Amino acid sequence: MDSVEVDGLRIAFERAGSGPALVLLHGAVCDSRVWREELDDFSSDYTVVAWEAPGCGSSEDPPESFRLGEYAHCLAGLIEALHLSRPHLLGHSWGSGLALELCRQRPGVAASCSLVGGYAGWAGSLPESEVTRRLEFALHIAELADGEFDPGSMPGLFSSRMPAHRAQELARIMADIRPVGTRAMARAFAEADLRDALGAILVPAVVLCGDEDERSPRSVGEALHAALPRSTLVVLRGLGHEMFLEAPDVVRHAVRSFLRSVDSQT
Q1: By the 8 A CB rule, do 128 and 152 touch?
Q2: How far, in Å, are 68, 161, 255 from residue 213 at the CA level?
Q3: What strands, in cross-sheet order, belong to the sheet with 9-16?
Q4: What is the pLDDT of residue 103?
Q5: Which of 31, 29, 37, 27 is nearest to 13 (CA)?
Q6: Helix, strand or coil, per DSSP, at residue 234
Q7: Spatial separation of the C-alpha atoms in residues 114 and 91, rounded to whole Å
Q8: Predicted confidence band of residue 157 (pLDDT cuts 50, 70, 90)
Q9: With contact defined as beta carbons under 8 Å apart, do 34 and 90 qualify?
């Protein structure tokens, strides 16, 4: 892993390829390893950077007070340090909210957003009771001893479409969670409500939702699409929340088609 320092925090990342920049933003309780295939595939046409959020992977832990705005500030610092000119953003789940927060915070920085299983923050997309349940679950698993967290216990995450080897890989990655990062990311997303900001996010966006996604249901994707002025909605039949692990070729084709359409207009 390479790294840069942003405001005293070491931010780790992987980089491959050449061409227009594409930044991959993983979900919560994960790290850049989930993008293994995407890093390889997209690097044939793009300079691909897979970051690791503070508190995840090889990045340093953030202060407990970190919220989505601070994560976006770190992401902007990474983009600036690597001299990435108007990168495309591809975010999954928690990473989708981070992409939207960066666009809110720094208009003009990104060229586009691909939102996979996206949210306008948990508070901006889910009922209050569900936000509370997810936050309590995250805070509980953050306190478990090493080896006690079973990633399969996270409701709606592992679908029947996910190949066994990718499910095992994701479970290994998620088992490496760290308490501070888990708590900070969960609290950040539980408090995040980006609904009022979406109408001012003017970059092209594609909202990819699986019609069997139990964590970010189709209605959440439809609401994002309705609120983002320059968005396209792509509904992927039979796929769940980890759709890029369940049917990677299908998801990469949808993202690549969108990116090509954006690049052709610049």
Answers
A1: no
A2: 23, 11, 18
A3: 2-6, 9-16, 47-51, 21-25, 88-92, 112-116, 205-210, 231-236
A4: 98
A5: 31
A6: strand
A7: 6
A8: confident
A9: no
Contact between residue 99 and residue 75 where contact means Cβ atoms under 8 Å apart = no
Phi, psi of 139 (to 5 degrees): -65, -30
Cα-based distances in Å from 43 to 22, 132, 256: 9, 39, 12
Q: How many CB atoms lie within 10 A of CB 155?
A: 11
Is domain 2-263 classified as CATH 3.40.50.800? no
**H helices of the chain, where?**
36-42, 68-81, 94-105, 122-125, 128-142, 164-174, 179-191, 195-198, 218-227, 243-246, 248-263
Euclidean distance between CA atoms 132 and 153, whole angstroms: 17
State residue 141's pLDDT score. 92
Q: 117: alpha, beta or left, given left = phi > 0 and alpha = psi -120 to 50?
A: left
How long a stretch of residues is the chain?
Answer: 266
- Phi-psi group of 130: left, alpha or beta (phi > 0 → left; psi -120 to 50 → alpha; rest → beta): alpha
Count helices and strands in the chain by DSSP H and E runs: 11, 8
CA distance 71 to 3: 16
- Residue labelled with tokens 């939102």: 115
- The answer to whether the Cα torsion of 27, 30, 32, 35 is positive or negative is negative
Identify residue 36 by its one-letter amino acid code.
Answer: R
- Biggest distance spanned by C-alpha atoms of the chain: 51
DSSP conformation class of 63: P
* Per-residue pLDDT at 32 exceeds 80: yes
The residue ranges of every structural domain in the chain are 2-263
